[in-house]
User: What shape does this take?
Amino acid sequence: DLKHFGEARLLMRKWMPVARRVIGDNDRLMLKMRRLYAEALYRDDSATLDDLHEAATTLEEAERIARRVFGIAHPLVADFELVLRRAQAALRARETPSPAESA
Assistant: This one.
């Protein structure tokens, strides 16, 4: 919420491999860390197209894991679906040329 996206990305890149080793990919905390990392990527105004792709891919994988582990009715799955839609919308907006660019 404070928009410290660069710091959040660095923190998540440092600690996600540690968390993955200790608690595994299927743990709720690990899934939340992946979501926060992806949000730090796609919500940043200076995000590159690669950042947006990475965010969408990260969220797709995490949503798939959450769905498998917790079931489709779990609130965490609904949260991932919402954040994934937002990341995909940001990606589409960046990939779609504006009318001024295509003219």
The chain has a mean pLDDT of 92. The chain has five helices and no strands. The helical segments are 5-23, 28-42, 49-70, 75-95, 99-102. The two ends are 37 Å apart (CA to CA).
